Amino acid sequence: MEPTGAPVDRDEAALAEARAVRARRRRRRRRGAFWLLFLVLVLVGVGSAAVLFGWSPGGSSNPSATDLTTTTTTSGLPHIPPARLYKTTDGVNVRAGPATTYPTIGTIETGVPVLVVCAIDGENVNGPGGPTNQWVRIVFNGKAGYITAAYVSIGPEINDPRQIGRCPPV
Q1: Cys staple from 149: which of 38, 107, 111, 134, with CB 3.0 to 4.6 Å?
Q2: CA distance 154 to 88
Q3: Per mean pLDDT, which range of 23-27, 59-63, 113-117 is the poorest?
Q4: In angstroms, rounded to a whole number, what is the distance separating the alpha carbons of residues 108 and 152?
């Protein structure tokens, strides 16, 4: 006959083993979820870079910055220089098109860097430096939109198509 304490010890040992098994399963699931999320974020980042910089599946397998800046097209579309970062000089609304009549798709605070893709003539806006009809297409937080050039620290580069290309008409 077994002592009265033995069955309790076996039950406790079985419970402890069951807890350990559950803990290992939870760790494995968390580890798997981490790597899945990591993979998804990497793929989204690569896809975003491909869209932003115009890489295509049929292009070179190792695009470099020089490939992007010296590419010429024969499609008749204008060549647009690579996008560059500029800071906003005031809080500004991001719009769906180059006018205040277009819907607002976001806002940007003062001093935040935005990726300027190209410039376009749009609605005349009174800014701190006087009226201007120049707008820039930007990419901010994964969204593309337009802000008036009056609130971006671009300077004379706005008038140089080699620095900031012209956007196609909206």
Answers
A1: 134
A2: 9
A3: 59-63
A4: 11
- Alpha carbons 123 and 121: distance in angstroms, whole number: 7
| Integer Cα distance of 128 and 134 in angstroms | 14
Cα dihedral 131, 98, 119, 167 sign? negative
User: pLDDT for 68-106, tens place per residue?
Assistant: 444 444 556 556 688 889 999 999 999 999 999 999 999
